[in-house]
């Protein structure tokens, strides 16, 4: 009996132990499940909050850089869907990467010029796009703004540019010229005009205004036609139309009008053509002389070609007048400027080749009010051009660059045609002749003399 009782007691103890053990396991499993479910809910909520914060940051970046339209492209249009996607066990690093991708895509890089100019700045947002510009021909150029030389048109104006493209004239052969459009970012080139053959062909005075390129071209379909035409080209369609024809030189676009010299007169005409207005007519008894002039601070500065000089050139006093031809005023009676030579302004002073009784002939500068007359160089006529970053001078054999008129350094030696130089951005464009003198080649290099390139 005692053995039975002990056996029964042991069995009861074992049963109770098993019961307590089972209860413990069930309690522990329940606790773990509840803990896991709670952690899942917390993690889901954290991811959802992170996703919403990421989306808000992405929308803020997009709104600042691209506006409403680009914001819709760079982020989910439905915030609820974004939260649902974020809560599906998506790692936070992946969410951060997605936000960075949205941030990069938010910046409009195609077909939109930068709203504000900047100098050689590449931000983290655009670095990947500008590393290989050939993959994105519409990418924002490294330098959105472009500075043109103040004396470009006085030097022939055979190159110009804007925030997306540069345009320049090349010589396929004597009598046949082209205008090339080059993408500043990718370097892609597109010939947008090829002239019909004509002996001694001229194609110059390139000027951009709005979505149009204006230029001067000599000769018509008849090779014996020696007159010039001002031509307007639509830069969207590349279609052209003749605005004016005559014995034209010194074509300048300012505001809504074109100004040019025609047969001894300064003329004004609308950018779309129409009746031309004569603003000034030179009075002299010798052969007809074209008039040098420039526009600065809403005034026209010009030389009245009154005194004939040996070689068919004229010298005359320097005047100013309003853009409508009114209020003609002598600027200086101490110096006379030569026509058909360098004559331009940087907005502060005039630069020209002239003559005084005291100093004789040479290159001069003076302020726009006629004060501070100074001879820069007493030398045979050479070319000069100025931009914000460089003062460039050259003759038929040498090209010099400096920060001002007193520190020029030799940059190039060669046969520089007509000693003409054009500045577009940080590049100098100039024509050189081969040893025979029969072939013209357009070259380009930087102010430092680097990246010398043959363009055609």
- β-strand amount: 35-45%
Measure the end-to-end span.
122 Å
Average pLDDT, rounded to a whole number, is 74
Query: Helix proportion of residues, in percent?
Result: 10-25%
> Could you tell me the radius of gyration in angstroms?
37 Å
- What structural category arises from helix and sheet content? alpha+beta
Number of helices: 4
Tell me how many strands there are. Answer: 29
The low-pLDDT segments are: 1-143
What does it look like?
With 456 residues, the protein is of the alpha+beta class. The chain is 23% helix and 38% strand. It has helices spanning 2-74, 79-86, 92-106, 124-130, and strands spanning 159-161, 165-173, 176-183, 189-194, 203-209, 212-218, 228-234, 240-246, 248-254, 257-262, 265-270, 277-281, 293-296, 299-303, 307-308, 314-322, 329-338, 343-345, 349-356, 360-367, 374-377, 383-386, 391-394, 398-402, 409-413, 416-424, 427-433, 440-446, 453-454. A hairpin with a 3-residue loop joins strand 19 and strand 20 (360-367). Helix 1 runs antiparallel to helix 2. The longest helix has 73 residues, at 2-74.
